[in-house]
Specification:
heterodimer, A: mainly alpha, two-stranded antiparallel sheet, two-stranded antiparallel ribbon, globular, B: alpha/beta, Alkaline Phosphatase, subunit A
Chain lengths: 446, 397
Amino acid sequence: MRIVPGMIRFVVCALLTLACGQARALDPDEARHLLLRTGFGATSSEVQRLQPMSREQAVSRLLHDMGREAVTPPPGFTANAHPDWPAQWRSKDEEQKSIFNRARDAEAAELKAWWWQELIATPSPFTERLVLFWHGHFTSAMDKVRAPNYLFAQNALLRAHALGSFRALLHAVARDPAMVRYLDSLNNRKAGPNENFARELLELFTLGEGHYTEADIKAAARAFAGWHNDERAGVFRFNVREIDDGEKSFLGRSGPLTGDDVIDAILEKPQVARFVTRKLWLELVSDAPEPRELERLATVFRSSDYSIARLMRAMLTSVEFWAPRSRATLVKSPVELMVGAIRQVAPEFADTKLLVEYGKRMRQDLFNPPNVRGWPGGTAWISTESLLVRREALARLTSGIPADRGFAGDMSRLLLASPPLVAAIGELRGRQLVEALLLDPSYQVK
Amino acid sequence: MMSRRWFLLRSGALAFGSALSTGCVTTTRSPPGAGLGNVLVLIELNGGNDGLNTIIPYADPLYAKLRPKIGLAREEVVQLDATTALHPGLAPLKPSWDAGECAIVQSVGYDKPNLSHFRSIEIWDTASASDATVADGWVARALAPRQPLAGRVAEGVVLGRPVVGPLYGAKARVAMMQDASGFASQARRVAKPGAMATPTAALQHVVTTQASLRAAGDGIYDRLQQMRVPLQTVFPRTGIGGQLANAARLIAANVDVPAIKLSHGSFDTHTYQRNPHDRLIGELGAALAAFRQAMIERNAWGRVTVMTYAEFGRRPAENSAQGTDHGTAAPHFVLGGAVRGGFKGVAPRLDQLDGGGNLRHGVDFQSLYATMLKRWWGIDPAPVLGRSFPELDLFLT
């Protein structure tokens, strides 16, 4: 009698497991895959932590561990008062200008090193991957913005919203001081609308090219006229004299539309969810989105009023995500490559200035994407030029590993998403084996 | 007439003194005919160059009216004829214009212009119609199916901004680098990767790139080693100057590569554009003049053509922040020892703007490509571009 409930529970569990095929514990390849795709590559301790869990449990754990603030203390300059840009712009004193600019350059260098440090130190690599994704999506670049404190604040904004509501994120980005400078909202005036922000809002942030007209861009540009910064205080502020409250027609709506009306009108379009989901698929799942599955995920995203967490849970538990055919289909970004190598085999490496340099040479200069589309990603990361630098950096990172460090377990299976291509790898051990695995073409993919 | 021109050209080279010192003195010569031994140097003016402040319709009263703050005054410009002038930063190109080696193709664009940077450069890179999507770049399509000539290092070299653009896809081998010597000495030490049973596209790309890297490294290294006398010409120390210096070295060393792609920018001048635009144009003019001199020095100018391109021009009317927004048609340069210079295409009509306030195009950019394919590389343009386009009178031969 007493055995029966236990037996029933066992049978039910077994049946459920058979029926779903997902409640079972992860195998080592699956644990590696999840860690590689949502972080910077697996370490043996992370694999051990996840392995007893089912796919759902492991994904829940990743989402639960997400942070909304960085663990690395903010760069020192963020405690300073906002620099007086208007005075700087008016000034004719070249020496004073040069002092001002050098101070900003030093802050920019400090800021970049700060993020590399956070990438290495974070307890939640998935947080960093999503913040980096949104940084590439809602691009603002140091070369144009020039104000490191704005870009630090933008990074904090992306952290706070990384797994939150895409709707809230979009409204916040439109009034983010770095973005206001980057896409020229600062120069968007009633009498002469500047189309830069309006165009990229539609083309790159939400709908994608081909889902709006040039007239929509012109109307949206008018709606965002006067969305300026108070450059003395260093905060976003409406410039009421430049607000255009006239009639506008945008995506089928008419009226004295504001910028927020424009954003809400855009979010009515099912295309937004498709566009953003597709981009996240290419970041996390594979290089070839499966149309029906993509549509299902986009529907999850849209019907949850753009909950990024809901979308992530659906995407990371999807059959396509876990399918063996999806493995080794994506190219690692420079950040993934270097931070992964450090976390996996060279944790003593601490030269964040060198990482900034290597990132630049591999064309992923944090806080300074090449243009408003962000980093193109995918196979574009690998050219003859960048592959040389990637190999040089990996050799440099592994050169600091003590020669007598032991590496237990199947390192090839832990480090590579597909079998090594270099034939002689079987005879190597310890540090030499790790170096060879990192320089294998398979280490470049995930 | 042609040989006279070439005689003058050579005399010009002798005046520099460098041709004498390298001992390669020729008297008269005709430029070579079309073929894949010819080099096309493509310069992307990325961000979309403001054509009206580059080739300036200085005599058109509408120009001053559309550009009260950012327009160039008649006294500033380098007049080429009674209506049209060069930006003063392009004054170093005046000798090549006077020598008949510089063509200015005006109003280059396409039907149903797209004003997105990314979509429009994709249209240019892939040579597609505005509403069609084509996967591979036009230069890659043109060059890749051909049997590689013995010793060809790659179909294309990319210097500067790391974007392959027209060299993308079609199995074209692209060597991307910043400094030719540094690249070659590093690349020749990279292992040749092994073969795979069933690679993913991503892994195949890594392996193919690693193989191209090694092949290009070996090829370029050997050629540079054989080049005993360095180039005498001094290039400006700017981004585009450095890229053209590297291109010149590769050509002078006879590295077998038909296409070299460079980039210069950003020309995306939405605000306060005069200073940055003047600087960019000035850098371009100075670097191109040095490049021409270097090619003449090495007796290579006859087998080199330079062509600029960009996703679009900019809006004729300046905006309220003394900048210009995205536009449509724009002029482009074609320079080289085999080029028949002068104005080509049609002058921009500021009195006939379209509904968005933009210029109407007069020459399809694919006509430019068709001319390069047929007259410069000897490749039938129709299979590459999908149909035939009228050719332009850009070459002597």
